[in-house]
Each structure stands twice: as structure tokens, then as C-alpha cells.
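Handout, section B. The chain below has 387 residues.
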Amino acid sequence: MAVQKLQAAGYEVEALKGALSESELKEKIHDVHAVGIRSRTSLSKEVLSHASKLLCIGCFCIGTDKVDLGAASMMGVPVFNSPYQNSRSVAELIISMIIALARQTGDRNLEMHHGVWKKSARGCLEIRGKTLGIVGYGHIGSQLSVLAEAMGMRVIFYDTRPQMPLGNSKPVADLQTLMSSADFVTLHVPQTPETKNMITKKELAYMQKGSYLLNASRGTVVVIPDLIEALQSGHLAGSYLDVYPEEPAENGQTHLFTELSKCPNTILSPHIGGSTTEAQVAIGEEVAHRFIHFLTTGNTWGTVNFPQIDLAYSGEGTHRIMNVHENKPGVLKEINNILSVYNIEGQTLRTQKNIGYFIVDVDSHFSDEIRERIAALTASIKTRVVY
């Protein structure tokens, strides 16, 4: 869908199947103006240094951790993603995994594939009346909350920011309270220094004996050896993982999960939380729209690493100049000194950390002249014109 949307807007698009190696990326990225990636492709500072013509990056997923955001910013390249479009897909998957863990269907399925008929109700539960603890009550967590209540579950949640409870869900004061109160704990947090190794032996010990842990957020959140110990000792009755600290670069490399696969009632999936047709279509449309909006107007609303500007275009008779520069004192004064002798229809400036982003609509007769003068400033990183 993204390819069709971009082509309809007049852009030349090359769609590649599978992830490229770093050397292949360096060669491929050299002459492109926009690049879109999925979760198996990394754009490091070294790779980005080969992108001499790059204007923007799109992550066709929720996370942007595969891009060196700081390096992209200092190159004057905004990074866009689609943070919400797969929320429903992840929430539905978690509901299905809660039921699968409660009924031990993962183990029964594996046994049946090996010719073992093991019909038993021992340790199998209904989820109605059980308590679901949600860590991270954002777009996914809140949708999951509604679905879980519809299934008859009691919902509690913990978030570092105040969030409005939906339905009858209740916030709790801290992570320990949530871990010790829930029959099922599910994690929906971003990858940050604060969430790295957030669930260790200590937090797992807080959980009730016979409870379950689910993680479809980021692989660095849970310390895997500690989880394995809790499962093999019987402290936890089961677990579901969709993400891992390290994920294979290609299909077939499953040796990383050998120890996890030996754990009882443990369901593993290959990072498919948002992998539904509906989510992928919606993500493609959103990121493609952000590409087109930025490339044609310079507006950066929705970027994750850049000052966000959404300035209405002044229209006929004007051209728009966009300038990314180092955020230091005196730059705006220098730009305004240049503009002071021209007719200006509209302008705005926003800064974020080390960079400033300036947009100005000028008389179309003087746009090339103004662009050249602004681009010549010592603080300028990238300057372009939309005609």
C-alpha cells in the first residue's frame, strides 16, 4: 500500500524483499532521498554517513530503535514511524495468548505434533474473574484493557505517567504492587534506559506462584535467564514471548531460543505482534503520508527526532525554503538579516536539542538566491526549496 501511495504521488519507488547487510545498505542508500525500513534493518551512524542525498527516514513499525536518531538529526534527516496503527493487532494477540497459557494449549499442540494424546484439565483455567496486570497503559495497553474486561477479567495497570483508566480498570502505585496482585502480567513499554532489564529475578519473585508473564514490547525489558529459572522452578505457570534481547538476522537461526523452548507452558513467536494485514496496510499508509507531507511541504509533524512544525503553505507566487542548522545563539539573527530585504509571506522556527529547523515562504522570484545565502551560513546543515 505504501508503494502504491508513493507512486501515485509521483515518486520513484524501489521495494526490496528482506533485510540488507550493512555493506549492501551503504551502497543502496547512497543516492536515495527517502528510505523506509522494517524491524530487521538497522541504520547506524556508519550506514547513514553514506547517504549523501537522504531527506527523510520512515520506520514502517512502532519502534525507531533501529535508527541512530542522533546521527539522523545532525544530518538534517527527520525520522517518521507509525506508533499506533498496530495497537489492535498486538492487543488481540495478547488476549489469545492469555487464553492459550491458561489452557496450556501450546504444550498440548506440541505433544499432538509428536503423536502424544494428553487430555487433562489439571492446571487449566478460565480467564474470567482473573486479574490482568498491564505494565504500560498506552495505546496498546489501554486497548488490551477494554478487550480483557469484555472477557470478564479484572484489570489493573501501572504506568510512569498518569493515564486515564478505561472501563473499570484501576491504576496501582508501583510495579511491585502490580506484579504481586496479578494472575497475568503483560508488558507494553518502550525501549528506554529505564525499561532495560526492568523485569529481573527480583520482580519475578514478586509475582504470585502459578501466575503468567507475557512480553510483546521490547526484548531488553526481561532478563531471560531469570525468566527461565522462574519457569523451570515452577514459580511461574507459563510465559509468552514475542520479542527477545537478540533476534536472528535471517530465518532459520533458532538456536538462540533453545533454553526457552525447554520451559513448560512457554509460547514463543517471532516478533509478530503487529504482523496482521490490517496493521501493515495502515502502517504503510501512515508512513507514506508522512513522507509525502514532509517532502512536499517540509512539515515535520509526527517525527520522532526533529522539531515538529506544521506551517500552512502560503500558496501561489511563493516558494518554501527549509533550513536545518546547528542550534546555537545567533543563527536566527543571521537568517533574519538575510531575509530583511525580501518580502516574507510566513515563517517559523523550532529547536530541539542540537538542531534548529526553520521554514520560510518567500517570493518565488528570489527563492534560489535566498536559499544559497542561507545555505552558506556556517551553522547550516541542510537547506532545500519546495517550488
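Note. The mean pLDDT is 94. Compare this with the example in section A.
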